[in-house]
Amino acid sequence: MSRALFAAVAVLPLVLAAGSAVAQSHGGHAGHGAHAAPARPAQARPQQARPRPAPKPRAAAPRPAAPAAPVAADPHAGHDMSGMQAAPVQTPAVDPHAGHDMSGLAGQGAQVAPADPHAGHNMGQTTAADPHAGHDMSAMTGGAPNIPTSVDAVGGRMVETPPPAAARAAPAHAADLLFDPAVMAASRKQLLAENGDVRTTAVLIDSIEAGFGDGEKSYSWNAQGWTGGDINRFWWKTEGEGAFDGKLHDAEVQALFSRAVAPFWDVQAGVRQDFRPDGDDTTQLTVGVQGVAPYWFEMSAAAFLSTEGDLTARAEAEYDQRITQKWILQPAIEVALSVSDMPELEIGSGLTSVTAGLRLRYEIRKEFAPYVGVEWSRSFGDTADYARARGDDVDATRFVVGIKAWF
Asked: How far is CA 375 from its chain centroid?
């Protein structure tokens, strides 16, 4: 009995110290409604007594309590912890499948399928919006509408529906129903003049040149011009040649009325007057065409009917081949024909002559360009016989130097 009492007296100071520490710990949660679980009574473990001398009987003195260790400040101080249980509760991790229907997973140890990326999405309609939604498609009968094309028409042209009869019943100009037709006619005439019927004038000097060949120095010119509008114009043309010793070989002047009949093409008609040093001048009626052919070939052709009934013709063509923006190479050819034989003019029937030239010019300005070149000419048929009879060559080559200008 004395040994048990001695053990209880030895353990009592430890129990008191532990109780003081617990009290201080709960004191840190002042104001919290936490209820600690009742502490179990400490049970002293029985110790085996060693044989020792019997102690002297004395009164047991209480052992002083050990100083309590400082306690860190509780981060929940002042919080209402009444709903918290005494024992700490482990909060489970958020289930990524919370709210998902997992009834399809049967059995323990089943593999959980990965989360559905479309979970919670409305997958009621997955088709793209119809671009024809709201359109009246009742007239469509399983295919494209049968619209006439050029394939269905004869000759490959679209079928043109004629205008209704009512469209031709009214005046040609609807404004005549509201305003005086005479006033409207004057207004339309003025509008035409301001938008296409503008009067213009131009002078084109195709060549003014000097030629050197076969011991004879010659000169020649070729110029033309017009005045008028886009459709109707007055044209004039002149050309001729002579020798530097003062002898004029021949010269001609044309006065023509020109009318545009197609883009880049004019029909011309008028008179031509020839001048010769022997005084045998000739007046001729002229009809021809002039324009620009595809690939920018400048062409002209004309027929001449003289007052004596002689019919001749002449055709010319030239082309500007640009080497640079300044240097232009111009080949040209001229062919002359005659239907009748004219001994007084030393011209035979058939192909009378061909003249071909090649000129290289430098455009100092667009309106002014000097050039150098070479020209070859030959007479044919009876015209060549007339040339031999008067002691001239049937063909000749000469070098030329001249200028080309326009304003």
From this structure: 47
* Confidence band, pLDDT 50/70/90 cuts, at residue 109: very low
Determine which of 94-98, 224-228, 243-247 has the lowest per-residue pLDDT on average: 94-98
What integer is the mean pLDDT of 313-330? 97
The residue type found at 155 is G
Q: Is residue 175 part of a domain?
A: no
Q: How many domains does the chain have?
A: 1
Give the 3-state secondary structure percentages of the chain, helix then strand then coil, rounded to 5.
15, 35, 45
Residue 296 lies in a domain: yes
φ, ψ (nearest 5 deg) of residue 306: -80, 170
For 222, the token pair is 């070729």
Given a cut of 80, whether residue 81 has pLDDT beyond it is no
Percent pLDDT > 90 in the chain is 45
CATH of the domain at 366: 2.40.160.40
Euclidean distance between CA atoms 219 and 375, whole angstroms: 13
Structure tokens at 85: 């249980």
Parent domain of 370: 200-406
Residues with Cβ within 8 Å of residue 20, at least 6 apart in sequence: 65, 68
Q: How far apart are CA 86 and CA 32, in angstroms?
A: 12
Task: Please indicate, yes or no, if residue 311 is contained in any of the structural domains.
Answer: yes
**How confident is the model at residue 212, as a pLDDT?**
93
Residue 218 lies in a domain: yes
